[in-house]
Design goal:
single chain, about 150 residues, alpha+beta, globular
């Protein structure tokens, strides 16, 4: 049975497992700050419902993600990163929620590619273990895979 999220049919939710160095900090960040319901857990990992997808934080002491930056629209964005595309009201609410929790943005909430194909709202920040996340929104979801002007 496919999931129905934001009016779109999503037959296959993704699963992503990644390292964190503190499960209590991960629980607070993903559960409290991002509002992701917690699923199963042990002393070494925690499942979260990440907007209809399954993410799993695995305890790896002294784990420190290594990241580099890629150039996108004149900005340096962390590579690797993961995230989700939200509708605009949910994106704005998440940006406000992150601000209220004192999250330090790697890229402040903003509109990128303004007036061009693929115009989107975006923001980047890291979890307490240093894993980079991006949250996007489109006023017109048909722009999700829009080709850039040549």
């Amino acid at each position: 049975m496919p999931l129905i999220i934001y009016g779109a049919c999503m037959p296959n939710p993704f699963h992503l497992a990644f390292p964190v160095d503190d499960l209590d900090a991960a629980r607070s960040f993903y559960g409290t700050v991002l509002g992701c319901p917690e699923g199963r857990s042990t002393q070494s990992w925690i499942d979260f419902d990440f907007f209809g997808h399954q993410i799993v934080t695995h305890l790896v002491p002294r784990a420190k993600p290594s990241a580099t930056a890629g150039a996108v629209d004149g900005h340096k964005v962390p590579i690797p990163h993961f995230g989700i595309v939200l509708d605009m009201p949910d994106w704005k609410a998440l940006a406000e929620r992150a601000r209220k929790h004192g999250i330090s943005f790697g890229m402040e909430p903003q509109i990128r590619f303004e007036g061009r194909p693929g115009e989107q709202a975006t923001m980047f920040f890291c979890d307490p273990a240093g894993n980079a996340l991006e949250f996007k929104a489109f006023s017109d979801m048909k722009q999700l895979f829009a080709l850039q002007d040549e």
